[in-house]
Amino acid sequence: MAENTRLDFAKSAPKVFRALIGFDAAAREGLDPALVELIQIRASHLNHCAYCLHMHTNDARKAGESEDRLHMVAVWREARHFFTPREQAALALTEAVTRVADAGVPDDVYAQAAAHFDEHELAHVLALILTINTWNRVALSTAKVAGTDERR
User: Fold this and answer.
1) pLDDT of residue 1
2) Which helix (H) or strand (E) holds 152?
3) Residue among 127, 128, 129, 94 nearest 110 (CA)
């Protein structure tokens, strides 16, 4: 494997990195850990971020998530029976926010999420979607390699 010649973001911008970790931790507060992982997995699919996808599928397994549900996240619309209506609303919002340049966040997608989450929860779901999209971009920009989880 070729040596990674890109910068180490955490070492090169430690204050920014710590701020992002803080934002991520604050976003997760009060959210169901299974929902957190589903959101992070779906955004990572959409962004083609193998590093984050590997990390979050492993985290989901450790938290007790089933293999069936993990395999169905990418095709959740075709396998709705694997996910609660609340999870479906979060996944749809994740897709809209992740692909915001394509069509914005449609009113019906937002309304469906707002019907399943109170304002506080919805704000945290949105913050989590923003953080995973940022993490995906950091990992992709710095050529992080799947299977090399550096949190340990």
Assistant:
1) 47
2) none
3) 94
